[in-house]
Design goal:
By secondary structure, this protein is of the alpha+beta class. It has eleven helices and 14 strands. A five-stranded mixed barrel has the order 1-2-3-6-5.
Length: 326
């Protein structure tokens, strides 16, 4: 499936009450269409108010209308039919790519069991992904990019996605209980990162590994969208994990989507600089010296004089660390 190619093959209709559409191969209930403002529209047939209830929505980027009658042209034929319409409210090509990627995951996830109930459940989760794009960003674009970079660059992205935080505000980027990974990046020339006290003083019996890398913004690098597409290509049938990735990215970007999708970082610089460090080896303020009524302690530590570790050296029963090791 390539929704971008299907969409690009359509001619923009001249009138506001028209949609030009094309069926999506192997998915007979779905069509991709374009309206007169060059907005992408996903058409879904066979879902009406008599079977299950889907609320109409009007969000910043998404409009959902159920049981909407519209005139649709497919090739030389023009018909009036009732569809569920999901309109992406932007003709910006990079934003449309973002919409198409999430939409492909939605459509593929319904192939084996496209019952009305499952469709509505999936659509409601789909809508929440776009609802999050009206919120305040929860992390810098650089921070999100480095987390996706680690997933994309890992030996097993399924493992990394499984243990990736559901909320960007969580203390560790990847948490498998006794194993934790925190990703730190810098655009400077020194391997100096800021930590919270909790990140370098994890609970007794747990091991935290810090993934440290350099980042450099460049016009010829890879964007968040590029990394998401690479991850998707490696785990195509794990729709729950792909949905999680889409949700976390939207929660993190919030209303900065339009700016964020255009920013790229040098992939080779990040890959060549990636190192891993045990939390025990990093200089820190020991928890015993922090008063019980003091919280939110943060400080910077220099990792440049510390020997990195090889994650393949960890014991074989390790799950999270083996997911990264190549």
């Amino acid at each position: 499936m390539n929704l971008t190619a299907l969409f690009d093959s359509l001619s923009t209709p001249k009138h506001s009450n028209l949609l030009a559409a094309i069926p999506i191969p192997d998915y007979p209930q779905f069509r991709i269409a374009v309206d007169h403002e060059e907005n992408p529209v996903l058409l879904l047939s066979g879902l009406n108010n008599k079977t299950v209830k889907l609320k109409n929505h009007r969000l910043k980027y998404l409009q959902v209308e159920q049981n909407k009658e519209c005139r649709v042209t497919e090739g030389d034929k023009s018909t009036i039919q009732a569809f569920t319409l999901i309109t992406f409210l932007s003709n910006d090509k990079e934003l449309q790519e973002y919409f198409f990627q999430i939409t492909e995951t939605l459509i593929k996830s319904l192939k084996d069991d496209p019952t009305p109930l499952r469709i509505v459940e999936a659509l409601n989760r789909f809508i929440e992904i776009f609802r999050a794009l009206t919120d305040t960003p929860t992390k810098t674009i650089q921070g999100l990019w480095t987390e996706l970079f680690l997933i994309e660059n890992s030996n097993d992205p399924e493992i990394l996605l499984s243990f990736w935080h559901n909320s960007p505000e969580e203390k560790f980027d990847f948490d498998a209980g006794e194993e934790k990974i925190e990703v730190k990046s810098t655009s400077g020339l020194e391997r100096i990162h800021e930590f919270s006290s909790e990140q370098l003083n994890p609970p007794l019996g747990t091991q935290t590994v810090v993934a440290s890398l350099f980042t450099r913004q460049t016009n010829s690098g890879k964007s968040i969208q590029d990394l998401m597409q690479n991850i998707t290509s490696r785990i195509q049938d794990k729709y729950d994990l792909l949905e999680k990735m889409n949700m976390v990215v939207s929660k993190t970007l919030g209303n900065s989507l339009e700016q964020s999708v255009k920013i790229k970082f040098d992939y080779d610089v990040s890959k060549s600089s990636l190192r891993f460090y045990k939390h025990q080896d990093i200089s820190k303020v020991e928890k015993v010296y922090i008063p019980a009524d003091v919280s939110g302690v943060r400080y910077k530590s220099d990792l440049s004089t510390i020997n990195p570790v090889d994650l393949s050296d960890f014991k074989m029963e390790s799950v999270l660390f083996r997911g990264i090791a190549n």
